Amino acid sequence: MVDLMQPVSRVIGEHRAQILQKLDGKPGEWTVAALQNEQAMNTVIGCCYELLPGLVRLAVKEPAFRTFMMNNRDRVLAQLAQA
């Protein structure tokens, strides 16, 4: 399987402000709630998938990406919460 953390980390690093804007939050304020909130995670996942490079999206379909992100939600949200 493709290692998705590298492209996901790049997307989060480059587009953190946009992703947080879609969540209507700031780092640290919503992280714990987002860990338990499926709707917030689905928003993050949708944003990240759209921003992945086209070749990655060709190799990894959205359902597999969603599963990966849900399984790694702690790592993803930790990156979003970084200052």
Automatic annotation (TrEMBL):
Q: Which domain of life is it from?
A: Bacteria
Could you identify this protein by its name?
Answer: Uncharacterized protein
User: What is the scientific name of the source organism?
Assistant: Pseudoduganella umbonata
